[in-house]
Amino acid sequence: MEILVQPNPETASALAAAAIAKAIYEKPTTVLGLATGSTPLALYRELIRLHRDEGLDFSKVRTFNLDEYLGLSPDHPASYSHFMRVNFFAHVNLNPQRTHIPSGLVSQETIPAHCEHYEEEIAQAGGIDIQILGIGSDGHIGFNEPSSSLTSRTRIKTLTERTRLDNSAHFVNPDDVPHHVITMGIGTIMEARKIFLLAFGENKATAVAGAAEGPITASLPASILQMHRHAHFYIDPLAASKLTRLAYYEWVLAHKPAWQRDDIAAR
Question: pTM for the complete prediction?
Fold first, then answer.
């Protein structure tokens, strides 16, 4: 696990975006796992800038989103389909046929088949090269709430009231936040070749510390990332404030060999 503490969210997001751009330049058919919410917005803005100003080509990239609310149409302003169109897809040259988001309108009886098909599509694409993650204040990744199986696959999940409250700002009425979602499972996420977790602000500090330094437990789903071979945390000082080994992470970053520093700069 690599902990990259940056001065602010914009710098951290730019570093992550540079790593994604490097991957796409090296492999134009890169498969990206995408997240929603406020955390990755600066990352998407930087990827848009790289496309507009530096010609970063997304035409052969394939994307898979982590999750979607059940019961919301793709045009609903709080749906993640809408979020991705407005904040990323509409501004780069992604082929719409190469973007994938779970359906919020799948019928109850077909949910298992829909989830299995989503897993099959990821496999047929060759797996996810880089999975972008945020982290909930309770340590959830995707919508894998605390107590989720650490080997779970794409499935329906019931949201906690804490998560519904955290997400209520995107709805006119907090009571309108759906109780159920379709989400990639933790096992699915862990199969990505690289994982980039972004976390900013003091309200994420406890979750970040638990994910990076705490015991591996289903009570804090992000803690499973300790078992991933290539997990990178892009965080700001506030999100890093409860890390007990913060001085060591900063020491490691400052004393990397030259070739590793160049690699981070490229990222």
Answer: 0.94
